[in-house]
Design goal:
- GO terms for molecular function: transmembrane transporter activity.
- Keywords: Cell cycle, Cell division, Cell inner membrane, Cell membrane, Membrane, Transmembrane, Transmembrane helix.
- InterPro entries: ExbD, Tol-Pal_TolR.
- By secondary structure, the protein is α/β, with parallel strands linked by helices.
- Helix content is 36%, strand content 13%.
- The chain has a domain of 74 residues: Nucleotidyltransferase, domain 5 (2-Layer Sandwich).
- It contains four helices and five strands, in the order H-H-E-E-E-H-E-H-E.
- Helix 4 links the parallel strand 4 and strand 5.
Length: 145
């Protein structure tokens, strides 16, 4: 009879095994789906009649013509043909003296993209913090008013 009076003591432990199982299943699901989220999608960008930027200072313009020749326009100075090393030197000095001046790159539509990209690399070497790309407005019959 003594054994009948002795009751088992209650355990005050939390059983975490189900939580670990759920966590592992969620981890596996996320490991499988995460690479799928980074896949690229082929898109065709819309044409836009975006408004031009309003800037206080005359921008620095770097232009790449159809043959890949570089041209530089600093502020109100006339456009001049320039070689890559001189471009880096002049733009770096000009941007150091005028840190808020906008720097824009324009490329002829028939020039190879790699040559426009090279102009961007040269501006990076000149330590230009921000560079914008110039474009022509979209030609459409139904332009917004």
């Amino acid at each position: 009879m003594a054994s009948r009076r002795k009751r088992r003591a209650l355990k005050a432990e939390i059983n975490v095994v189900p939580y670990i199982d759920v966590t592992l299943v969620l981890l596996i699901i996320f490991m499988i789906t995460a690479p799928m989220l980074n896949l690229g999608v082929d898109i065709e960008l819309p044409k836009s009649n975006a408004r031009s930027l309003n800037v206080d200072a005359e921008p620095v313009l770097v232009t790449v013509d159809q043959e890949g020749q570089l041209f530089l326009t600093l502020g109100k100075d006339p456009r001049e043909s320039i070689d890559p090393e001189t471009l880096v030197t002049k733009v770096a000095a000009f941007v150091r003296n005028n840190p808020d001046v906008p720097v824009l790159v324009g490329g002829d539509g028939r020039v190879d993209y790699g040559q426009v990209y090279q102009a961007l690399v040269l501006l990076q070497q000149a330590e230009v913090p921000k560079v914008g790309l110039m474009s022509q407005p979209a030609e459409s019959a139904a332009a917004p008013r």
